[in-house]
Design brief:
By secondary structure, this protein is an alpha+beta fold. The chain has three domains: 103 residues, Alpha Horseshoe (Serine Threonine Protein Phosphatase 5, Tetratricopeptide repeat); 70 residues; 60 residues, SH3 type barrels (Roll), CATH 2.30.30.40. Helices cover 62% and strands 14% of the residues. It contains eight helices and seven strands; from the N terminus they run H-H-H-H-H-H-H-H-E-E-E-E-E-E-E. Strand 2 and strand 3 form a beta hairpin. Helix 3 runs antiparallel to helix 4.
Length: 255
C-alpha cells in the first residue's frame, strides 16, 4: 500500500513538473514571437505563432496575433483567415473585428451582403457580444434567478412580491431561452466550420463540380464563402450576395 501511495505521488509530481515545463515553453515562445513582431521580422513571428497553435491548440489571442503578423507581411488571405478564426472563439472582441475589417479592405472582391431582415441582424449583433461559453454561464445564472422568482410567486404571502416573481420570471424565462439559443448557435459555428477563405489569387467558379462546367464568375484571394456541400474534391459554395457555384477544395481554407 505504501508503495502504491508513493508511486501516485511520484506520478503526480512528474505531471506537475511536465505541466510547468509546458507552460514555461509556451510563454517563452510567445515572448519570442512578440519580439520578432516588434523587430518587424514578421515571417519569424508567423512561424512561432503557427508553432504555438500546433503545440497548444486553438487560441483567440494567438490567432489574432498571427493575423496581425500576416497582415504586416502583406499576406491578405492568411490574415483574414486567422482574424476570422479568432472571431469565432471570441466574437465580442472589438479589436479582432476592427482588424478583420481593415484586412478585408485589401481584398479584391467587394461583395455586398444580401439584405437580411432587420430583426435577424439585431439577433446576430446581440449574439456576437459574447462567446458560447459566456452565454452558457449567463443562461445558468438566469435559470437560477428564475427559480428564485418562481419561489417568490408560489410561496410569498405578499402581492407585490408575487408580482415581482411573476414578471421577473417571465423576463428571466425569455433570457434563458435566448441565451441558450445564442450559446447553441455559436457552439455550432465552432464545431461545424461552414465558412472558408479563398486562398488562390483567382479562382473561376463553375456551374458543376468539374473542370468542364460552365464558368459562372471569378473570385479572388481573401473572399469569404459559405460551404454548402462537398463532392469529389470540389466544394459547392455561396457568396454573401447569394451567388452559388463550385470550386476545387484546394483553393480554399476552412475557417
Amino acid at each position: 500500500m505504501k508503495v502504491n501511495i508513493n508511486m501516485k505521488r511520484i506520478v503526480f509530481f512528474l505531471l506537475v513538473q511536465l505541466m510547468g515545463v509546458s507552460v514555461f515553453a509556451q510563454q517563452t515562445t510567445i515572448k519570442e514571437a512578440e519580439a520578432a513582431y516588434r523587430k518587424e521580422n514578421y515571417n519569424k513571428a508567423i512561424e512561432l505563432y503557427e508553432k504555438l497553435l500546433k503545440d497548444n491548440g486553438e487560441s483567440a489571442s494567438v490567432y489574432y496575433n498571427l493575423g496581425n503578423a500576416y497582415y504586416k507581411a502583406g499576406k491578405v488571405a492568411p490574415s483574414i483567415l486567422n482574424y476570422e478564426r479568432a472571431l469565432i472563439l471570441n466574437p465580442g472582441d472589438g479589436d479582432i473585428r476592427f482588424n478583420l475589417q481593415m484586412a478585408r479592405l485589401k481584398a479584391v472582391d467587394r461583395i455586398e451582403p444580401a439584405g437580411d431582415f432587420f430583426l435577424l441582424r439585431w439577433f446576430h449583433a446581440i449574439e456576437n457580444v459574447k462567446s458560447a461559453d459566456a452565454w452558457a454561464c449567463i443562461s445558468i445564472v438566469c435559470f437560477i434567478l428564475l427559480i428564485g422568482c418562481l419561489i417568490l410567486f408560489f410561496f410569498s404571502k405578499y402581492i407585490r412580491l408575487k408580482k415581482l416573481g411573476f414578471y421577473g420570471g417571465v423576463v428571466l424565462l425569455l433570457a434563458v431561452i435566448c441565451t441558450n439559443i445564442f450559446a447553441a448557435d455559436q457552439k455550432d459555428d465552432l464545431i461545424n466550420r461552414k465558412f472558408a477563405i479563398i486562398f488562390s489569387p483567382t479562382v473561376t467558379i463553375k456551374s458543376s463540380p468539374d473542370t468542364s462546367g460552365t464558368d459562372l464568375f471569378i473570385l479572388h484571394e481573401g473572399t469569404k464563402v459559405c460551404i454548402k456541400s462537398t463532392l469529389s474534391g470540389w466544394k459547392e459554395i455561396s457568396t454573401e450576395d447569394g451567388n452559388v457555384g463550385w470550386l476545387p477544395s484546394t483553393d480554399i481554407q476552412i475557417i
